[in-house]
């Protein structure tokens, strides 16, 4: 179960969780999602919250609904690739802002990233 941040709407946190699952490939294109009831139990939320999540994901073309069958991850890999790029851009932006806030210059950030990446390999 997700540990929810009380400062962020729950439906947005569940959306982010599902987007990460899609972006990472843990949910494959065309894969059927759990039912509303199953997800509500899994996340410990009201089914209406899950309905809102699914509506928003459908509005973003990340999932589609087959009436009477369920909800599925989009089969359009361009949509998934675009979402991944947007998520990465946001993460990088947040990281750079946080590093700038504690006094690191852009050059220092790049140097630290290179050092960390080399150390990890």
Automatic annotation (TrEMBL):
Q: Which UniProt keywords apply?
A: DNA-binding, Transcription, Transcription regulation
Give the CDD domains listed for this entry. WHTH_GntR (cd07377)
Q: Which InterPro entries match?
A: Tscrpt_reg_HTH_GntR, WH-like_DNA-bd_sf, WH_DNA-bd_sf
What the entry lists under PROSITE patterns is as follows:
HTH_GNTR
Its taxonomic placement starts with: Bacteria, Bacillati, Bacillota, Bacillota incertae sedis, Caldicellulosiruptorales
The answer on whether this UniProt entry bears the keyword Transcription regulation reads yes
Question: PANTHER family, per this entry?
Answer: GNTR-FAMILY TRANSCRIPTIONAL REGULATOR, HTH-TYPE TRANSCRIPTIONAL REPRESSOR YTRA
Record field: transmembrane: none
Give a yes or no for keyword Transcription regulation in this entry: yes
| A UniProt-annotated Pfam family | GntR
By what name is this protein known? GntR family transcriptional regulator
Residues annotated as domain HTH gntR-type:
8-76
Q: Which domain of life is it from?
A: Bacteria
Q: Name one GO molecular function term.
A: DNA-binding transcription factor activity
């Amino acid at each position: 179960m997700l540990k929810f941040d009380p400062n962020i709407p729950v439906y947005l946190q569940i959306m982010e969780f599902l987007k990460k699952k899609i972006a990472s490939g843990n949910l494959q294109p065309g894969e059927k999602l759990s039912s509303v009831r199953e997800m509500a139990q899994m996340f410990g939320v009201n089914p209406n919250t899950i309905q809102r999540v699914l509506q928003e994901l459908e509005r973003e073309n990340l999932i589609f609904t087959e009436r009477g069958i369920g909800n599925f991850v989009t089969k359009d890999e361009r949509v998934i690739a675009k979402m991944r790029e947007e998520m990465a851009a946001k993460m990088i932006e947040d990281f750079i802002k946080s590093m700038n806030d504690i006094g690191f210059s852009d050059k220092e950030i790049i140097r630290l990233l290179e050092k960390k990446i080399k150390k990890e390999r």
